[in-house]
Amino acid sequence: MSVWEVRMSNSKGLPYFFNTETKQSVWDPPSELSKEEVENLPGAKEHLSSGAGGEGRPGQVRASHLLVKHSGSRRPSSWKEENITRSQDEAVEILRGYQEQIGGDTKKFAELAKEHSDCSSHAHGGDLGFFGRGQMQKPFEDAAFGLEPGQMSDIISTDSGVHLVLRTA
């Protein structure tokens, strides 16, 4: 019986591999496991995307986001700012400016997310990968699932801050 299982990161919205004996977490599949063994781990069917083509499982969407945190965010700090003191209204105004710059340009969205998003997903242009229902905060989930691929949401607010969500698949 394998000591590994697949879990979902709440902060990144990405699957990771957890060793139940050592309590070690790793992003990449354990090297000692074959592809078939990885696919049969507990949690693999729920959390791993099928195939290398970048397609999610049924019931999943893929989205990117641009997050602006504020002083009322559950963790008012980020990779670029240790102590975020702006108000929610100020965060919304900043996001409105980004929204205007983006227009409908998905490349511009990724550029602005990479440069300005308060989420660690900024390193990937805001890409959160595939996720299903129950894996994101409810307002974020509702926005992502309510969009068609290529559509961008208006500003939504969660416990994390204010976001623009771009559904990518």
Textual characterization of the structure:
It is built from 5 helices and 7 strands. The chain is of the alpha+beta class. The chain has 2 domains: 4-47; 61-167, Chitinase A, domain 3 (Roll). The protein has a 4-stranded antiparallel beta sheet, with helices on both faces. Helix 3 runs antiparallel to helix 4 (106-116).
Topology:
Blueprint: E1 4-8, E2 15-19, E3 25-26, H1 35-39, H2 44-47, E4 61-68, H3 88-102, H4 106-116, E5 127-131, H5 138-146, E6 156-158, E7 161-167
Antiparallel strand pairs: 1-2, 2-3, 4-5, 4-7, 6-7
Helix pairs in contact: 3-4
Physical arrangement of strands within the biggest beta sheet:
5-4-7-6
Distance between the termini: 35 Å
CATH class of the largest domain: Alpha Beta
Instruction: Give the total of domains.
Output: 2
Share of helix, binned: 25-40%
Rounded Rg:
17 Å
- Total count of helical runs of at least 4 residues: 5
**Arithmetic mean pLDDT:** 89
